[in-house]
Design goal:
- The protein is mostly helical.
- Among the domains are: about 100 residues; about 120 residues, no CATH class.
- The strands form 4 sheets. The chain has a 3-stranded antiparallel β-sheet. A two-stranded antiparallel sheet has the order 1-9. A two-stranded antiparallel sheet has the order 2-3.
- A hairpin with a 4-residue loop joins strand 7 and strand 8.
- Helix 11 runs antiparallel to helix 12 and helix 12 crosses helix 14.
Length: about 400
């Protein structure tokens, strides 16, 4: 048989985010969307999982993995889908994965509270980017701020502005670039690709543009595939090439081309740790120990060590109280500054509620029955990251 063409696709094939969803997939999206529409907070994965299981007998983890994605595989490069999660391959009960603007194409109730206001903001961001003058002696990135958005869109609601930073963080058009400030007043850098999102006239148009701009999986030709083998020598025959592609041969000389390893999960964002290190140069506080605690927390989170994670989170909370003029974290959480946002205060209360759980993990005596603490009990990383943001701003 004469073979005219053969190729290997590296990464996840591009799929259609606008394709119709199954009833089960729509049930997942609706279960996640309804609490957000009411409160502005994504529900915990425990709520989503239990609701789908009890009401419809569905496996939420199976349904979220079945949703379409464009770009590369989640965790292996730039990708975008109908949902987002900090740990897409292992969503913990207390995590709060969310929906993207693309999901509003399938869940119309998200259009007025999320998608349409975001697209209005995106149009203004593109205008701001295009209006920034170019200077031959400067390479400073263009920025925009909450104040600029509110000035350009005076009818935009405070409720949506409180949700906006979270949306910007998870949309390809706006997630590039560092952000400074809190949830209310902030400044954000623009990615240089933002101008390519000009002319968007609706959610469908936006999703089509995202799909167009997402990186495509690499295609490896026959000759490139022939040259790949463990020994470094190309396969000599079409039979060898078939073994390379299908992994059907027990002989180790030919292996399939594999995807890169997924990124290591991170609990405390590296950008925050870097900011802490920078503070040492001009802050009255020495944050060397705090930096080390965060790095050890990330290491133990990667290794799935729940007791170490509990201990380190408690240590971080107790260690940082003096930055706010308090002796204990309980005093910080009970009397937060009036300038802190409602979201920050809510996160502090959640961390305060965690303290007894940390005490349980550290001080409960040995007993005849098994202990119940595991990685699912580690609190959401978003809570601690938000608190560390406040610590950095106060240093």
């Amino acid at each position: 048989m004469f073979v005219t063409f053969m190729a290997l696709v590296i990464g996840r094939p591009v799929t259609d985010l606008l394709a119709p969803l199954s009833h089960n997939q729509l049930s997942l999206l609706t279960t996640m969307a309804d609490p957000y529409i009411q409160t502005g907070e994504w529900p915990t994965w425990y709520f989503v999982r239990e609701t789908l299981s009890r009401v419809e007998g569905l496996d939420a983890d199976e349904q979220i993995q079945s949703l379409h994605t464009v770009g590369l595989s989640p965790g292996q490069g730039m990708s975008y889908g109908l949902t987002w999660s900090n740990h897409p391959h292992l969503i913990q009960d207390n995590a709060r994965p969310g929906l993207t603007v693309a999901a509003a194409f399938h869940v119309p109730s998200l259009l007025p509270v999320m998608a349409n206001p975001f697209l209005n903001v995106l149009r203004e961001v593109v205008k701001i980017y295009q209006a920034v003058p170019l200077e031959p002696d400067r390479a400073a990135p263009a920025t925009y701020s909450a104040e600029m958005i509110k000035r350009a869109l005076p009818s935009i609601s405070d409720l949506f502005m409180a949700r906006l930073t979270d949306i910007l963080d998870h949309e390809p058009a706006t997630r590039a670039g560092a952000r400074r400030g809190g949830d209310v007043e902030w400044t954000r850098e623009m990615g240089r690709d933002v101008a390519r999102y000009g002319g968007i006239d609706g959610v469908k148009s936006y999703v089509e543009r995202v799909t167009e701009l997402m990186p495509k999986p690499r295609v490896v030709s026959v000759e490139a595939a022939r040259s790949r083998s463990v020994t470094g020598r190309p396969p000599a025959t079409l039979e060898d090439l078939h073994r390379l592609v299908t992994n059907s041969s027990p002989v180790p000389k030919a292996q399939p081309v594999s995807d890169p390893q997924p990124k290591t999960p991170v609990y405390v964002k590296e950008a925050l740790i870097n900011e802490l290190e920078d503070k040492n140069a001009h802050s009255q506080w020495d944050v060397t120990k705090l930096v080390q605690l965060t790095r050890e927390l990330n290491s133990n989170f990667t290794l799935d060590n729940p007791y170490a994670c509990h201990a380190l989170i408690r240590a971080i909370l107790d260690h940082t109280a003096p930055v706010f003029g308090r002796k204990t974290f309980e005093q910080v959480a009970s009397n937060p500054p009036a300038t802190w946002t409602k979201t920050d205060k809510d996160y502090l209360r959640k961390l305060l509620d965690f303290k007894p759980q940390g005490h349980d993990a550290l001080h409960r005596h040995i007993r005849k029955s098994a202990d119940l603490i595991d990685m699912h009990d580690v609190p959401s990383g978003a809570w601690l990251n938000a608190f560390l943001r406040l610590v950095i701003d106060a240093l």
